[in-house]
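Task 17 of the worksheet. Students: predict the tertiary structure of the chain below and write it out as structure tokens. Keep your answer in the requested format; marks are given for formatting as well as content.
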Amino acid sequence: MAGSVVTASFVVASIGAFYLLHGKHEKYASTFVKVGVIAGLLSSLVMPFPTGDGQGKNIAHFQPATLAAMEGLFETVEGAPLAIIGQPDVTQKRLDNPLLVPRMLSFLTYQRWMAEVKGLDAFPEDQWPDDIPLLYYSYHIMVGWEPSSLRSWRSRPGSS
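Model answer:
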């Protein structure tokens, strides 16, 4: 919902900017720009916390196997690292060429640097998400392209 408010706010601001550039309806156009930019900025700040943070914690609590797949976490770890990039290799049950931030996933998920985060090894394979590479890549693309994303918690449970 916050994402739709951000989008709508900047659409309103862009319509106002269009009219300002064409010198039409300047009083209304300047109001559109002001309100659109202010609402867009405020709703952008809401995306990482509390809305995104809450979503990430819900995934960790209710769908821990999905969290493990989203992060490419194949083994249960205390002090779990956050995967910035990598390539999940499901057959070898590992994340190839990872760029990791040590202990960050544990902290973002449970607010403790050494918290245990369950990896895919903690779940029977029939409970794993269907297409782990697709889930991993689509999640990381979403996080990387999200404008307010500095690992906006948001979507990372540890969430953009």
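Marker's comment: Residues 4 and 159 are 18 Å apart (CA to CA). The chain has a mean pLDDT of 88.
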